[in-house]
Amino acid sequence: MGILKERFKAKADESAVEIKELLKEHGNKTIGEVQLSQVYQGMRGITGLVSETSLLDAQEGIRFRGYSIPELQQKLPKAKGGSEPLPEGLFYLMLIGELPTEDDVHHISSVWQRRSHVPNHVFAAIDALPITAHPMTMFVSGIMALQTESNFAKRYSEGINKKDYWEPIFDDAMDLIARLPRIAAYIYRRKYRNNQHIQPNGLLDWAGNLAHMLGFENESFKELMRLYMTIHADHEGGNVSAHATHLVGSALSDPYLSFAAGMNGLAGPLHGLANQEVVKWIFEMREALNTETPSKTQIEEYVKKTLSEGKVVPGYGHAVLRKTDPRFTAQMEFGKKHLPEDPLVQTVWNVYDAVPPILQSLGKIKNPWPNVDAHSGALLVHYGLVEYEFYTVLFGISRALGVMSSLIWDRALALPIERPKSVTTDLVKQWLKGEAEIWGD
Ligand code: CMX
After folding, report:
1. Residue at 92 is within a domain
2. Is residue 87 within 8 Å of residue 398, measured between CB atoms?
3. Is 426 known to be catalytic?
4. Domain-embedded: residue 250
5. If pLDDT is split at 50, 70 and 90, which confidence band does 439 have?
6. Is the CB of 99 under 6 A from ligand 1?
7. Is 117 a catalytic residue?
8. CA 324, CA 392: separation in Å to the nearest integer?
């Protein structure tokens, strides 16, 4: 067993005993009440999941195992000469629950390098799609093709003891994370760079190597990828991509099947696809106004037009957050440091000035502030990664770190198949008249 696996096993065994005791003593305590409106409206605010890797506070934003993004930037190991955290370190933190040493992080980089081989049939599956297919469709197809490599599926078919599920899940998660940059870069170079592929560089860290294989050698782009892969990794358990991965995994679908489900959710415009929508929306605004640098008044008018057409302003609002997303702020800080004069980045900042008061004035939007997706595209455009349909793939690679470490925990804690109760409106009406019971299954 490898070092990481051994450390994880020790932590998981300790946690499993602790949770068993906790449930024995407090299992019948009530956590909250569920209102009928919550049942109809996306289960918002219902606590119904355990996800160990991160926790979201509506006012403060995300903390990974207790650490905020600025704290991660300070405390996690960096690449030589760099100042952004290495995402390998965040993976260690989410999985083990403790900050890693430099050695721990180098160990993960080298394990992922070793496990990064992608079999040819995965590229063939991607190649079978028309070049016009959306990069997220190619990404999910590549992940599904990779499912042939699942250790868990193989071990399950051979009759594995349920106590050991976590182990091949761990191996699959590590393999999958290791292979995603190569798959993503293949899609990018196939679709946008005339199939001119770039071989991995075994000396680089995971995110640096992704930048290299995409074709961007600029050091500050590599730093951006390290930051980007860190801040998009996890956002507690209830968001669509994390929840879908967890849900499908609870049926003992292997990590490839579960992650593909999560990525299909990330590809929705109200979730991860919002990062492409933001840049598309700004490009359309520039074209409509015939200027690269729209004024605040022009932006305000364009926002009102977007709303009057029954569309959302992409990159704004959140189901849980009620303040500016610290992931937005981290990217704004990166922009101020590396590219303060960039006109698109400045437009993103002007949009940040213009949008919240307008959304607030509508009176129905619970959070008028920007989320992670409001900023990311503009930074990518600056470095020449202008093909915005690709942006959600980058989000997806990062999200693997959170949802895969969570999935390992799910199986180590032997969490059961997820199966909440649903009702029909007919039953609700009978229940309101006192003619039927809703509870129970
Ligand atoms: N622009 C216009 N209208 C918005 C809005 C926005 N940015 N955000 C919310 N609203 C609207 C909702 O559509 C809803 O309208 P109806 O009552 O007419 O249905 C109303 O305001 C209330 O919504 P809410 O309770 O404030 O927000 P939800 O929890 O339902 O939805 C979210 C959250 C993110 C889907 C929504 O804010 C949105 O659509 N934002 C734009 C898309 C986006 O940026 N998504 C990325 C989120 C981050 C991520 O997952 O990556």
Report:
1. no
2. yes
3. no
4. yes
5. confident
6. no
7. no
8. 21
What would the mean pLDDT of 274-278 be, rounded to a whole number?
98
**Strands, E assignment, 227-354:** none
In short, whether 181's Cβ falls inside 6 Å of ligand 1 is no
Q: Are residues 248 and 377 in the same domain?
A: no
Instruction: Give tens-digit pLDDT for 187-237.
Output: 999 999 999 999 999 999 999 999 999 999 999 999 999 999 999 999 999
Q: Could you tell me the pTM of the whole model?
A: 0.98
Same domain? For 131 and 232 the reply is: yes
Q: Check pLDDT > 60 for residue 441.
A: no
Backbone φ, ψ for residue 40 (5° rounding): -85, -20
Going from the Cα of 88 to the center of ligand 1, the distance in angstroms, rounded, reads 32
The Cα-based distances of 299 to 221, 286, 305 in angstroms read 28, 10, 10
- Assess whether the C-beta atom of 373 lies below 6 angstroms from ligand 1: yes
Same domain assignment for residues 256 and 296: no
Selecting among 232, 246, 271, 375, the annotated active-site residue is: 271
Tokens encoding 77: 């190991």
Residue 291 and residue 256 in one domain: no
Tell me, in angstroms, the distance from the centre of ligand 1 to residue 94's CA.
28
Q: Is the shortest distance between the CB of 318 and ligand 1 below 6 Å?
A: yes
CATH number at residue 360: 1.10.230.10
What is the extent of the structural domain holding 289?
A: 274-382
Active-site pick, 318, 325, 382, 410: 318
Res. 440 pLDDT band, cuts 50 70 90: low
CA 153–ligand 1 middle distance (angstroms)? 38
Q: Is 26 a catalytic residue?
A: no
Query: Cα dihedral sign for 125, 131, 132, 136?
Result: positive
- pLDDT at position 438 is 85
